[in-house]
Each structure stands twice: as C-alpha cells, then as structure tokens.
Design goal:
- InterPro entries: AB_hydrolase_1 (IPR000073), AB_hydrolase_fold (IPR029058), AB_hydrolase_sf (IPR050266), Peptidase_S33 (IPR002410).
- Helices cover 44% and strands 16% of the residues.
- The protein is α/β, with parallel strands linked by helices and 311 residues long.
- The chain has one domain: Alpha/Beta hydrolase fold, catalytic domain (Rossmann fold, 3-Layer(aba) Sandwich).
- α1 packs across α10 and α4 runs parallel beside α6.
- The radius of gyration is 19 Å and the shape is globular.
C-alpha cells in the first residue's frame, strides 16, 4: 500500500513515510542520487527495522513524490539539511539516528556536523564524502564495463580522466562520468548493482508516474550541480563528528573508494566499518537481512548501554 503522506516543511510539501511505534527510537533514512527516492529502502527495510524502531523515510525536497522545485525558485544543498531538522521538530523527535545511502551519506555527514545535538548515531551505506574521488572510481568501473561490451573508445576516455595527474574539477569529473556512463545504455545499472537476488517491485506506481517523478528529480540534481556546494569534500569534517558512526562498504561498490575508506578509518573518532561481500552499491536490498541485522546491532548497542546505566 502507499504508506506516505505529504508534510509541509519550510513551505514545501515533503513526501514522508512513517513506520513503527511512536514511542520507539527514531531513524531517518536519507536516500542517494542526488534525486533518487526512499522507495527501494522502504520496500526492503521498513518492515524489518520497524519491529524495533520508528522509521522515517523521505523523498527529499523536489524529489520524486515530494513537491517539485518551481522555475526561478531558490534551492540549495543547505535546504536539504534544514528540511531534515525541521522535520525532526515537526515529528517531536528529540534525537534520531541517520541511515544515509550514497549521496544520503554525504547529507548525513553534513547534517551531523551542523546539528550534532539532533543525532544519536549515523550509518553510512556506501556513501560519498567527496564527489571528485567517487567520480574517478565510477569512471574506472565505467571503463571496465565499456571494455566488456567492446566500446574501447569510451573505456580509454574514462581511464584517461580517472587516472590523470592533472587538476580536474569535481564538476568536470562528475559531468564526464554522467556522459560516459550513459553510453552503456541498459547496462548502466551494472555500475551499481551486483547481487540481484532481491529485486524491488516498482509496480506500485505506473511507468508514466515514475517518469514524472524523475523529471522532478532531474531539476533537483541540476540545481545542486549549478550551485556547486556538492563539489566540496566533506572528508575534513569526519574528525569533528563525535557521535558513533558505522561505515558500510561493499565488495563491488564503486562509490566509496579506498581513499575515502582510509580517511574515515583514520579520522572518525567513533567510527566502525562493516564490509559486505558479494554486494554492490545497495546492501539494503542486495543483502537485506544482513543489512537489517547490522543496523539493529549497531543502534541497539548504545540503547542497551543507556538502559543498563539507568538501572
């Protein structure tokens, strides 16, 4: 069934899904993209996690089922953070934990650094902390897939750009990745997916509805790229975040590259790393049972210690 409802947040209708009991500790899920949706996360994880937590999942401002961003409307990266904080207050949540997937991990780091008092714990699922580093890694995987289908010209262009010692802007790297990966056609999602044993059923909405949703999301993504704040590396912020953080990495994920993992390991004061084998960019649906178990174990460790300390 269609679980969500529209909630007016800072003057815009935001699509919000709520699962679990009101009295339970809250989790906010932040999807990736920019411009994806909470749909596949809710499909695979909402019922699993809501047995222990109050789960809040949103389509971010201007994305998919949320209200579109109008022409000439002001919109910036900071709006996404302020929307989260205002939603927390609207739902009367004192503190919540975050699960940030991909670009949602980027948002989670930024949110945690700006509003540390609002956050219990942070789970970063195959995140990007730095669009330049992620784009280079994505270009390398695009090269391998292009070579496999015989498109050697694109493969060479990808590798040349990914491995260049010259200074190339984050904007150019991302733009070229988007351009070159599009040449893969139907094979493009192989960049991200590896284990397809747990597919998402998208039939809740028609093909026409999904097309309309993602037309809105494209405006969201284009405006973030035009503003340019997403091109700022968040790696320096990791050492300043004191709440416990769990970094989830995966064997075939090209987004969280080795340099980002090393920086997290060295910089995150309360950071842990869990690795998923035989998994691509989305462990929450490629290995949903283990993902749920890892999340529950990480979040309940603090809750248990708090309960014990009160006895």
């Amino acid at each position: 069934m269609k679980q969500g409802k529209m909630v007016k947040i800072r003057g815009k209708d935001m699509y919000v899904e709520l699962y679990g009991e009101e009295h339970e500790e809250a989790i906010l899920y932040l999807h990736g993209g920019p411009g994806e949706s909470c749909y596949d996360f809710s499909f695979h994880q909402a019922e699993r996690l809501s047995t222990r937590f109050k789960v809040v999942a949103i389509d971010q401002r201007g994305v998919c089922r949320s209200e579109e961003i109008k022409e000439n409307e002001l919109f910036a990266l900071q709006d996404l953070i302020e929307d989260c904080e205002e939603l927390r207050k609207h739902l009367n949540v004192e503190k919540w934990s975050l699960i940030g997937h991909s670009f949602g991990g980027f948002l989670s780091v930024l949110y945690s650094s700006l509003y540390p008092g609002s956050i219990h714990k942070v789970i970063l699922e195959c995140p990007t902390f730095d669009f330049s580093l992620s784009s280079k890694s994505l270009l390398q995987k695009t090269a391998r897939l292009s070579e496999a289908i015989g498109n050697f010209e694109i493969a060479e262009k990808c590798l040349k750009l990914a491995n260049t010692a010259e200074q190339v802007s984050s904007k150019e790297l991302l733009d070229k990745y988007l351009e070159y990966s599009d040449t893969l056609g139907e094979e493009r999602m192989a960049i991200y997916r590896h284990n397809q044993n747990h597919p998402t059923d998208y039939a809740l909405y028609s093909e026409e509805e999904w097309e309309a949703f993602y037309d809105k999301s494209e405006i969201h993504f284009d405006m973030l790229r035009a503003e340019g704040e997403i091109y700022q590396s968040l790696l320096p912020l990791l050492e300043n975040i004191k709440v416990p953080m769990l970094l989830i990495t995966a064997e075939y994920d090209p987004v969280t590259c080795g340099e980002q993992i090393r920086t997290f390991t060295e910089s995150a004061e309360n950071g842990e790393v869990v690795h998923f084998s035989d998994c691509g960019h989305s462990p929450h649906y490629e290995n949903p049972d283990r993902f749920c178990n890892e999340v529950l174990q990480f979040l309940h460790s603090e809750l248990f210690s708090q309960t014990s300390g009160n006895n």
